[in-house]
Amino acid sequence: MGQERTTRGVSRSFGRGRGRGQGRGRARGYAGLLALAVAVPLMVPGTALAGDTAARAAAAGPPTAAQQWDTMKAKLSAIKGVWTDQSYAGSITNAMPNTALLGNGDVGITSGGSTGVKTFYVSKGDFWNANPNPKPAPIGGVTITSTAPQTSQNLALGARATASTTEGSFTPDRAVNGQWGGGYEGWVSQVGKPQWISLDLGSVKTIGRYVVRNDNAARPGNEAFNTKTLAFQTSNDGSTWNSVDTVQNNTADVIDRTISSVQARYIRLNITEPTQGTTGDSIQNPRARIGQIELYQQSGGGTPPPAQPFREEQNIVDGTVGTSMSLGNAPVSMKTWLAADKNVMVTSITSTGSQPVQLQASTFAGATTPNSAYSNTAGTDGQVMWAERATASGSKWVSRAALATTVLGGTAVQQPTVSGATAKTVFTVPAGQTVTVVTTVGGGGQNPAAPHNDAVTQVRGQSTGSLATLDTQRVDWWKTYWMQSGVELGDATLEKFYYAAQYFIGSASRRGELAPALYGIWTTTDNPQFNGDFHLNYNAQAPFYGVYSSNRPELSLPFHETILAYVPEAQRRAKQDLNRVKPDYISGRFPSGGVPAGVLFPVGIGPYGSTTDDQYHQQVSNSLFTASQFIDYYEYTQDVDFLRNKAYPFLNEVSLFFESYLERDAAGRYSLWSGPHEGTWGQNSSADLGLLKRVLSALIAGSQKLGVDAGRRTTWQNILTNLPAQPTAVYNGKTVFSLATAGTMQGSDTRDIHPGDNTINLEFIQPADQLGINSDAARLRTAVDTLDAMNSWGQENSFPKVFNQAARAGYPAQSLIDKFKSVITSRMAPNLRISDPHHGIEKSGATEAVNSMLIQTDQQYITLFPTWPAGKNASFYQLRQKGAFVVSSAKQSDKVSYVDVISKAGGTLKLKNPWTSTFTVTNASGAAVPFTTANGVISVQTSVGQTYHIVPTA
Fold first, then answer.
1. What is the maximal distance between C-alpha atoms in the chain?
2. Residue 536 predicted with pLDDT over 90
3. How many CA atoms lie within 13 Å of 937's alpha carbon, on the beta-carbon side?
4. Contact 227/239 with Cβ under 8 angstroms?
5. Which of 326, 408, 621, 884 is a Cys-bridge partner for 307, taking CB atoms 3.0 to 4.6 Å apart?
């Protein structure tokens, strides 16, 4: 163990001697503002300090909370999503939207619309369909547009639409509702040709241009369904039609035609060839598919420019969306926000021109790609508009949710009217004044009754005063959230990703609400990919990988509750459904089709103990991935109640399954068979093995902490001792960590590693925590060689994995940062999320990579700046470590200038000594604190809630 020495610090001196930073230039960012410790001399054996001058060396005192917030606020205010066009690409999607997003952990708001039309789509984290299979659904939205014509205004918007035929819920009004965007389907006819769709504009309009958005414009890959031949017709009575323009042999996604100006009230598209006739489906089942029809007064191609430049900003600093645009040729600015803990959305509209502007606000229920089994209704209650949506009926629960909207501060507010599932009103915003559109959201969950009544009551209770209070609470919530931790990296790209990712997980997950699923809480279609569910072979866990070290562990609590709700079903499956994992293997070992106890999870689950994707893909690791998050929460918080009531019982269930499932040879050595990748099969799957080791270690420690199950510790330890080491293989002449025991992979791909695929073979590093920065040098070398061999930096699934794993393994720091930034730069969507066609909120998990570059706890002691480039300054504020230690530190010119530690749970703080010189340890009041050093590790016995300053002597 080496020689141990015990040292007692001395009180701090606050003289005016030379302090940190003097003579070296003033520290900036957190390196300066957040240097909470001062340089204090310390008498240690074998050292001496000359006189009182050295004893009084000191630096500036700690910054105030206001100074800390000023630094953070300035940084965050510069990190925002920005849009300068009104295409709203990616707002309607079966994945996570790419437009501006707001969230309070329950309600999700997605920005959308079209030219001259502003829409906010509303979803709710617990608004899930159950029949026949669970999946989240959108509720509806709120649209704001002008009532006045303008040269750039779409005259077709809101027109009364009728059609020759209609397929299900794809009614003709969908072609003129202004909600067109990516993934959208408008009017769809039944099979047959010709077909037609006609519009009643309400009065005679002058038309010089028409635009038809075909199916492939919103749904790439459907070019065969683009309209081929149509006639643009006008009428004064809706009966006698005149063909003004004919389009033949069209292949374009968008038909944009300028015509000689005509005056007409009625418009019709007479479609004689609704498809291209280039595929079997388009030949055999010709349907007209018109995403959107737009009519404009002026001639001239191209999207008509708005009266003023459009700009929209997503502000992560305080959770707002700011919009500048034209409505009816009148310039307006909007600010939209969502209350922090009330389901209230507020849009303030200011007329920035010299004339009043008359606007229409509408509240609607439904989706742009609707499920016909859902019901959508709307109504009015005095000046309040409401819209309600219900999921499909059946043997399982039915969810209902509603929006209620009212206008505050407007003049000439008209009595709301209802058309179908939309309620709307008209009001005027005087020049230079502001009107507020308030929407409340009610319902969600299982079987609520008439939630529009609750929403109406809530919105009636809002006033200028109550909204001002909610606004203040929102600003305070985000300030508190951001002040929980921070980093200063000196790298704008890394920081943009880091703080945006923290924004998304903070918007999507809140204590007491349903956990965010694959795409967070932002659902804009009735058919999200993968049922928009909780995929348990890493996807559902990954969003939380970084919340613990970011000092936001509470964000993971909804995930734990979702899992615990499924435990009864997982117990049943372990006993009765195990055979489906791999029948030829299971039936030979377990004739009953299951094991006596434990839990078995399918790959996809929903809320309330429901199942979405009832497959196993030859994997038994879903419980293990899930267990890692229970362990992380306890290890980073030391919350004994959580351990006793939630983590320990769940880990016990996981262990019970594997105690039966593991194979044991004559020598007492254990092994397991499972699928590393979906659909594969091999012995000692790397992820399974590493995660099981973590579960068993946590159970042993947990049983000791709680004083329970002493008799089972021998069993757990015996398994742990006799499990094999993480499997390796040789690849291109180098030893690498493999997917399973070398040579045991079965199926269509028997390679020991899959270069270019996601780094499943390194998940024993993270989230299993079986290798870290203080591990054996040879194992770290193998990990780095594996990362190079895999070369999976840009692989979609790998983003929340590979960078975390590389940081934990001490991958060459600058190279790691360069690879990280390359993916960030190429994949960052306009709203600052890391985008790919299939994944969503899980990308926030890569914040752990940044934190692990700056600080790691491995082998029970903390290492500062373990994977950070030489010569590059950095600092961090209140990153949390295992043992519930909250740490702040800074590194300047390759020297650690201070360490501040808040002990949240007491216990022994162990810190790898970052200095070769002497140092001091004091508490918040400046009193010396005893410590020991051994083998380069500083140990301090801490007390709950106390702060410890550790600094080198001057």
1. 106
2. yes
3. 18
4. no
5. 326
SS3 851: helix
What's the rounded mean pLDDT across residues 281-294? 95
pLDDT, position 151: 53
What tokens does 395 get?
């043997």
| Three-state SS at 606 | coil
pLDDT tens digits along 167-197: 998 999 999 987 787 778 999 999 999 999 9
Give the count of beta carbons closer than 10 Å to the beta carbon of residue 588.
8
Question: Would you call 829 exposed, middle or buried from its count of C-beta atoms within 10 A (0-12, 13-18, 19+)?
Answer: middle
C-alpha to C-alpha distance for 308 and 473, rounded to whole angstroms:
33
Residue 784's SS3 state is helix
pLDDT tens-digit series, residues 87-114: 899 999 999 999 999 999 999 999 999 8
Q: In what order do the strands lie in the sheet with 947-952?
A: 486-488, 874-881, 885-892, 895-903, 947-952, 919-923
The tokens of 347 are what? 């849009």
Close Cβ partners of 241 (under 8 Å, ≥ 6 residues apart): 233, 234, 235, 268, 270
**Would you state the structure tokens that stand for residue 99, as one six-digit string?**
């437009």
pLDDT the model gives residue 2: 37
Q: How many CA atoms lie within 13 A of 706 on its CB side?
A: 23
For Cα atoms 646, 651, 653, give the angle at the middle one, nearest 5 degrees. Answer: 100
How many whole angstroms separate alpha carbon 763 and alpha carbon 802? 9
pLDDT the model gives residue 36 = 35
pLDDT digits (tens, 9 = 90+) for 683-704: 999 999 999 999 999 999 999 9
> Are 552 and 508 a contacting pair, CB within 8 Å?
no
For residues 827 and 138, give the distance between their C-alpha atoms in angstroms, rounded to a whole number.
26
